[in-house]
Amino acid sequence: MSQQLHNLMAAARKNKKALFLPYFCVGYPTFNASLAAAEAALEAGATALELGVPFSDPISDGPTLQKATQFSLENGTHFEDVFRLIRQLRMRGYEQPLLVMTYLNMVEQMTWRKFAETLEAAGGDGAIVPDLPLEEFQEPKVILSQKGLSLIPFIAPTSSPERVKKADTQEAPFLYYVSVTGVTGARKTLATGLLKTLGDLRKKLKTPIVVGFGISNADQAGQVGRVADGVIIASALVQLISKTKISQIGKKVELFCAQVVQKLKHS
């Protein structure tokens, strides 16, 4: 598996300093703009990136991400473009872990083996597949691990103790904790009881926890970072990009990400 990502997450847990893993939709608003946004985040100190592949039926995405993915699809973005973006980042010298976020149907059409081979060749580190059931996790995990790639399990507030325990045994670099019931989206406040739940989970689980869904700004990230090992921001970044001139996207994204990174360092 991606040993670098394992090491980074283990260090975050040990040092109690949460890491920042922002999300970008590949091809939104253009391929080059998404590449510029990804570069800017890495320059600002993001530990790793979550690179979203546009999909016609993104069941876990809220309105903001759905709109972005639809726009990207209409621009002609294909699955191959996420691998192209990863290759571009590697060619430019960035070494941070890069994770592909995609949906099960797309991977199965390609086959898990071909997906793993292509992702490894591009220089990626692993995959996040929101609609992959934990019951079907084993075979894809083995295929990816044979190429040194990680597969990230999901847990949520609705997950049973048995399911959480099963996710914790997958030897993943981290567990993706969905902080709200429902779809992604920037929210004005954190979910009720989230911080206590995360604190309790962190004491029980050996695998680091990264929190996504519903985190909108640096202050919220800082609060979550005190009780988790990593933070993902998606919709708020996509909203920022949607309101920014293409020529200014890199600058605005770097400023936003730098604020989050600084907040997490001092939380």
Question: TL;DR of this structure?
Answer:
By secondary structure, the protein is of the alpha/beta class. The chain has a single domain (3-265), classed as Aldolase class I (TIM Barrel). 48% of the residues lie in helices and 12% in strands.
What labels describe this entry?
alpha/beta; TIM Barrel; 5-stranded parallel sheet; 267 residues; 12% strand
Secondary structure class reads: alpha/beta
Tell me about the largest β-sheet: 5 strands, parallel
Q: How many structural domains can be distinguished in the coordinates?
A: 1
Subunit arrangement of the protein: single chain
Shape: globular
Give your account of this protein's structure:
The protein is an alpha/beta fold and 267 residues long. The chain has one domain (3-265): Aldolase class I (TIM Barrel, Alpha-Beta Barrel). Helix content is 48%, strand content 12%. It contains 12 helices and 10 strands. It has a 5-stranded parallel beta sheet with strand order 1-10-9-8-7. A 5-stranded parallel beta sheet has the order 2-3-4-5-6. The longest helix is centred in the last third of the chain and has 17 residues, at 249-265. Mean pLDDT is 92; it is low at 182-186.
Reconstruct the topology from this structure.
Blueprint: H1 3-15, E1 19-20, E2 23-25, H2 31-43, E3 49-52, H3 63-74, H4 79-91, E4 98-101, H5 104-110, H6 112-122, E5 126-128, H7 138-145, E6 150-152, E7 154-155, H8 161-168, E8 175-178, H9 194-204, E9 209-212, H10 218-225, E10 230-231, H11 235-242, H12 249-265
Parallel strand pairs: 1-10, 2-3, 3-4, 4-5, 5-6, 7-8, 8-9, 9-10
Helix pairs in contact: 2-4, 2-12, 10-12
